[in-house]
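Continuing the batch. This is chain 6 of the set; chains 1 through 5 are on the previous pages. Same settings as before, nothing changed between runs. Recording input and output for traceability.
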Amino acid sequence: MESAVPTNAMQAQSQTQTHPSHQDQLGQLNRITGQLAGIRKMIENQRYCPEIITQIQAARASLKSVSLNILEQHLENCIVKAIGETNDDQVKDKKIQEVIRLLRSSR
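Output for chain 6:
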């Protein structure tokens, strides 16, 4: 499994690129925070296991939705821009591999 911590090269690249805003995801993240608080309360109150698991699955699905929305923006903005600005096949391949790594790590 790959590290979720960005490499130095990725950090340097992210500091030089303009990234899309993900402010529209904050509402959903707030809802997820509420879901997690609810799950915590369910555990504290010793609720029925399948009810807790159902809520955990809902929170995971919500997080996956946020992740996919951010990935979509990344593809539409960052990747398209980076590939469009170069004729270097190595740079293009690097961007494609970046997306493949993200998809593999999200399984």
